[in-house]
Write the structure tokens for this entry.
Amino acid sequence: MARSKITTSMTAALLAGALLTGCGGNRATAERQNLDRFTAEEIYRRGEFELENSRRPDDAVFYFSEIERLYPYSEWAKRALIMQAYGNHRARNYEEARSAAQRFLDTYPGDEDAAYAQYLLALSYYDQIDEVGRDQGLTFQALQGLRRVIEDYPDSEYARSAILKFDLAFDHLAGKEMEIGRYYLKRGHYTSAINRFRVVVEEFQTTTHTPEALMRLVEAYLALGLLDEAQTAGAILGHNFQSSPFYEDAFRQLRGRGLSAEAQGDSWLTNIYRQTIQGRWL
């Protein structure tokens, strides 16, 4: 987000002690100042300075939040609110970032920065995806937030980034299904494994995990003696991902049992195969 630069005179005035006493003050020092003696713009500029020069984004957030307290409903308060969301996100205070972004959207839904507020809201979930282990709640929240950016602000500068992150988050969900499926497969819980791989094939077919899911289905169905299903999974894999090493692996498994990668029988995989041949699946 573009932020206006601090003028030399303003910086000098602020650094001379307008808001802080001493060199490189901190929040504790700032809290002892009578901030209500200064204009909203002066406090805002100090927040900008801290954001640009301090390693503690929390210090900048303090100034922006003080503007909201001292000068509510002002133009500077509006600008400070979106900066609170940005500063908290930089500080990895994700809940606080979401709170500030949501307040902005609730208060200024038609503002030109609404797209950025929605993007920050989604990003605060997205950046926590790797921290959640098997709990995918935040991933779903990220997808929902990113979809809002894509659908509500398609012409904004954040839409393209939102699309890329949406695809990555979607891929992440499929990856979690694969992780659990491989866990079951390794321990011989074939039916449970099949259920996980089926989710990937049916609901996450555009992700990078689909070829492996199909190969694992071949493996699991062969282990259960369900040969028609195994061959059909191999046929889908061969039709769509013949150059994939997962197809080579599946083909070896089928050939080792005297089978071929051809659609057989009538199952959920047969329906997928028909859709693929007709070009409606991918």
User: Anything to note?
Assistant: The longest helix spans residues 159-186. The chain has two domains: 8-171, 188-277.
